[in-house]
């Protein structure tokens, strides 16, 4: 188990990675990786 204090995002619980496409939900304002939200970066 990680003891990092970095905030986590998405359903996967991973920290922010500037190399990965992320999208913010208009309803809950949480951030999700495009692959978890089933959205391709090219379509956003």
Automatic annotation (TrEMBL):
<dbReference type="GO" id="GO:0048188">
    <property type="term" value="C:Set1C/COMPASS complex"/>
</dbReference>
<protein>
    <submittedName>
        <fullName>Lysine-specific demethylase 7B-like</fullName>
    </submittedName>
</protein>
<dbReference type="InterPro" id="IPR037869">
    <property type="entry name" value="Spp1/CFP1"/>
</dbReference>
<dbReference type="InterPro" id="IPR011011">
    <property type="entry name" value="Znf_FYVE_PHD"/>
</dbReference>
<dbReference type="InterPro" id="IPR013083">
    <property type="entry name" value="Znf_RING/FYVE/PHD"/>
</dbReference>
<dbReference type="GO" id="GO:0008168">
    <property type="term" value="F:methyltransferase activity"/>
</dbReference>
<dbReference type="GO" id="GO:0045893">
    <property type="term" value="P:positive regulation of DNA-templated transcription"/>
</dbReference>
<dbReference type="GO" id="GO:0032259">
    <property type="term" value="P:methylation"/>
</dbReference>
<keyword id="KW-0479">Metal-binding</keyword>
<dbReference type="Pfam" id="PF00628">
    <property type="entry name" value="PHD"/>
</dbReference>
<keyword id="KW-0863">Zinc-finger</keyword>
<dbReference type="GO" id="GO:0008270">
    <property type="term" value="F:zinc ion binding"/>
</dbReference>
<feature type="domain" description="PHD-type">
    <location>
        <begin position="10"/>
        <end position="34"/>
    </location>
</feature>
<keyword id="KW-0808">Transferase</keyword>
<keyword id="KW-0862">Zinc</keyword>
<keyword id="KW-0489">Methyltransferase</keyword>
<dbReference type="InterPro" id="IPR019787">
    <property type="entry name" value="Znf_PHD-finger"/>
</dbReference>
<keyword id="KW-0539">Nucleus</keyword>
């Amino acid at each position: 188990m990680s003891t990092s204090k970095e905030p986590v995002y998405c359903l996967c619980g991973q920290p922010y990675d500037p190399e990965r496409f992320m999208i913010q939900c208009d309803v809950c304002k949480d951030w999700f990786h495009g692959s978890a939200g089933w959205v391709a970066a090219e379509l956003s």
